[in-house]
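Example record

The entry below shows one chain as it appears in the dataset: sequence first, then structure tokens.
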Amino acid sequence: MARKKKHTNKENQTELAPKTTETAPENKVETASENTLENGAETSNKAQNTENEDCKTKEIFVYSEIIENNGLETFHPVVFELLCAARKLAEKHSPNLKVCAVVCSNDNIPNIDDIKTELYKGGADKIYLVKNDKIKSYMGIAHSLTELCKQKTPEIFLTGATIEGRSIAPLISSALDTGLTADCTKLEITDFKDEKKLAATRPTFGGQLMATILCKKLPQMATVRPSVLQKSEEIYKEEGEFEEFLPEQDDFEEQIRLLGSEINKNKLSSELENAQIIVAGGKGLKTEENFEKLKKFAKLIGAAAAGSRGAVDMGLIEKEYQIGQTGKTVSPRVYMAFGISGAIHHITGIENSKKIIAINTDENAPIFQNADVKIVQDAGKILDGLIEELENNT
């Protein structure tokens, strides 16, 4: 039976073989022709889709936070840093990526023309003015911006890591079911799986490491710390596109009620981020007496006084004056560090300073690797000498 079965299989193969020989060339030609047509059509469709995708205008949103200055409404300085960064991102992402400044208001802005000009010059191609009488709180702003994002589908959404920015960004990202990278110090465009993605870098593990994070969904959201990016000194354009957006908020109810507000009257703290000269003390100053000398020296030269996290932890200076990853980020013309070792979380807060002068008894202190002027000496003694010299010359 085994042989018969084998013989039968052989016969079947023999019978099939001529048919295969006769029909194969014809079928092969027809199949190749059909495949060529199908592949050509598929390639053509892909190319057309890619071309349509490339030609489609995309947008990057920059939330333009309004603050009051001397009775006039103007923008937080971080807005112009973000507009400049957005322009650089747009250049690397796509020629059709439009930079859009997004402004929220619950009433008419009296100096709207000035505000528009300011944003165009700062780097905006287009301005969205989101208006609704219910925009009176962070919840109202977040609700309105969520609706705008759903309609306009931006590629990227940036806001400053201010109190307002940090309050609205998580609400928006949660409502849109997208990711959010907070407190960024660097923004770039990178290629990832044939896509252009926002690569947002931020300190992590208490400032010991820097992590670069990609967002899977759109919009790719990030909050950026003030003063870590540089604003452009050049005028981008005099005018651009403008569109009013009126969100429907009939079903919106405030879940937070403001009971009261208090203005921070501490001028030193409020001006620290914009100070041109900063003198800061660390654990190396050791005593409250030395920190009083630091503040006296700052007053004599018209500078702002500050401290490191170590000094704050020792109770030598208040938390509101802390500079670093868990404090304020600054970019003065001159930064003087007295008795600061220079851990990475502190360097993160001062890396955009134009000139860094460091005084420390430890010649191997990390701060010296980032300093322009290095003085290996007791910081307290240097302060005594500087104060004496200044007082004798006034």
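Notes for this example: The radius of gyration is 31 Å. The chain has ten helices and 17 strands.
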